[in-house]
Design goal:
Length: about 150
């Protein structure tokens, strides 16, 4: 493929906001050329699927960045052996995020150092990976924000 054609494809992709397309279509086209039974529709479907997947990755990354997590903590990294009082089954149920879909609140209570913040971040990351907007605030930051809002009326 010529450089001019690639440049035209880049311009069209940018105009259509297909940001991953310029980087992915070449390899997919080469793979399709090697397949004797691949149709143009197969090629197009694969390119569009790759663009969709790249968008999902970018969205997850953006949602994770804008959530304000102080660290990256996952449920897999949570130490149930250390936090012996943490009910594993209940925590795994919370990780399904059904409480969010039901518009219910969850309060994590326990002594300092038992992983409440770790779990809150892990649940937030799961939500962000689902494409949901998340905002992480400590209780102290929330109080400051509420006081500032109250002063502003």
């Amino acid at each position: 493929m010529s450089t001019l054609q690639h440049d035209r494809i880049k311009v069209l992709a940018a105009e259509l906001r297909l940001m991953a397309l310029p980087d992915i279509y070449g390899a997919i086209a080469q793979g399709a050329a090697k397949k004797k039974d691949a149709s143009y529709a197969d090629f197009l479907e694969e390119v569009l699927r790759a663009e969709r997947d790249a968008r999902r990755v970018r969205t997850r990354e953006m949602l994770t960045r804008t959530a304000g997590f102080p660290a990256q903590k996952t449920l897999e990294a949570y130490d149930f052996a250390f936090a012996t009082g943490a009910p594993r089954v209940q925590i795994q149920e919370l990780a399904s995020l059904g409480f969010v879909e039901r518009a219910e609140n969850v309060v994590l209570l326990g002594p300092s150092g038992t992983g409440k913040t770790h779990l809150a971040i892990a649940f937030g990351l799961i939500a962000a990976h689902r494409g949901w907007k998340v905002r992480f605030l400590s209780a102290a930051d929330l109080v400051i924000a509420l006081e500032a809002a109250q002063r502003q009326g």
